User: Which sequence fits this backbone?
């Protein structure tokens, strides 16, 4: 039996489409992303040209269903796109990933009217943004948020502060987690998620300076008597906001895992190329056993990370529960990115501290993957609890 016969026609069409999309992404990365990465990272300047190009590529609608104007890509193809970009520069993936978490919350939990109104505008990039969860006193423990929304006729009035919000400055719409009933116990029963377009009462407190993940804005946002229409309450019913936000984070964790896998592979490529060129004691350092051992471990980590990402993405696409698999992928791939970046720094030696070499950016960007979308300590708890639950404990 030939390979063609083993794959049904529909699967062959999907594979062809994926190959075309990935080829377009590869060409875009080499032509547009790689040449500007160092400049924009060091200047901490938002890459508006890339943002406009992302619109043309359809990345703002990558996972949004085609009936709403999106590309309708599954998590498997989407993860490959993210990994390809992050092999070169991790930061740009944040422009559309946070945005797609917001869109995913609407597509999964929104009313039909909300889907029809918001998703086409998200897919086109007319509205761009992300998700507003974290507060100065609440990171992993979201039930401690203090931002409150009080009903006032056909509107809610929001007051509170969010922090570390990706696309908070350059974006124009956010899905914001609030408490509509602060007295409810447990707290999650009084939490809701609203789509908030920028306007009076919705302001940027400050842009946050960062070690890495530069060029992409992370901001503090302040809500002072901000009025949002009641029809912007995702799902139309109070009390489901935390579940809606956490449901979107499954896709977010697959994205972070894909970033980690891409960065692990990117750091390996940089280290391998340098090791073949750099000579000591009359031969390339790639010929030295100590360096070969490091390269072997880096390669294995990158490959394993990619396989874990694929497993999580395939489960997500099949509609099966994947919090265990997404947690495993995010945990391993992010640590692989961090370790590979560190090992690559050692292979580069003194040159690794020079901003003339790309590896120092990988070294600064990688730690974020161990923190974002739930710290790796939280991932370990999620993994352990799921193992116990699935084993019948």
Assistant:
């Amino acid at each position: 039996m030939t390979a063609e016969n083993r794959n049904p026609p529909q699967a062959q069409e999907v594979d062809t489409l994926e190959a075309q999309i990935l080829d377009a992404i590869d060409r875009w990365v080499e032509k547009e992303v790689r040449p500007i990465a160092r400049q924009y990272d060091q200047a901490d300047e938002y890459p508006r040209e890339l943002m406009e190009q992302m619109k043309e590529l359809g990345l703002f609608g990558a996972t949004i269903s085609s009936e709403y104007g999106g590309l309708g890509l599954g998590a498997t193809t989407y993860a490959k796109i993210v990994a390809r970009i992050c092999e070169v520069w991790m930061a740009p993936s944040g422009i559309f990933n946070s945005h797609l978490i917001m869109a995913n919350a609407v597509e999964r939990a929104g009313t039909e009217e909300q889907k029809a109104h918001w998703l086409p505008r998200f897919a086109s990039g007319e509205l761009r943004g992300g998700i507003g969860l974290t507060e100065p006193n609440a990171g992993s423990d979201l039930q401690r948020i203090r931002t409150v929304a009080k009903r006032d006729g056909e509107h809610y009035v929001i007051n509170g502060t969010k922090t570390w919000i990706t696309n908070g400055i350059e974006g124009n719409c956010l899905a914001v987690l609030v408490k509509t009933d602060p007295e409810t116990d447990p707290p999650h029963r009084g939490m809701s998620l609203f789509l908030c377009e920028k306007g009076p009462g919705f302001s940027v407190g400050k842009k946050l300076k960062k070690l890495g993940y530069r060029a992409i804005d992370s901001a503090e946002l302040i809500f002072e008597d901000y009025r949002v229409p009641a029809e912007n309450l995702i799902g139309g019913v109070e009390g489901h906001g935390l579940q809606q936000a956490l449901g979107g984070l499954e896709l977010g964790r697959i994205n972070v895992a894909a970033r980690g896998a891409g960065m692990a592979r990117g750091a390996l490529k940089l280290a391998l190329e340098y090791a073949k060129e750099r000579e000591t004691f009359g031969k390339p350092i790639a010929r030295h056993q100590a360096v070969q051992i490091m390269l072997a471990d880096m390669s294995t980590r990158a490959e394993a990370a990619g396989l874990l990402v694929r497993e999580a993405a395939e489960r997500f696409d099949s509609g099966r529960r994947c919090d265990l698999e997404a947690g495993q992928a995010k945990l391993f791939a992010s640590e692989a990115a961090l370790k590979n970046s560190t090992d690559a720094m050692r292979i580069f030696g003194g040159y690794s501290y020079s901003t003339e070499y790309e590896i120092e950016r990988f070294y600064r960007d990688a730690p974020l993957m161990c923190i974002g979308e739930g710290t790796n300590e939280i991932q370990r708890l999620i993994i352990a609890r799921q193992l116990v639950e699935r084993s019948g404990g």
About this structure: The domain at 243-390 is CATH 1.20.140.10 (Butyryl-CoA Dehydrogenase, subunit A; domain 3).
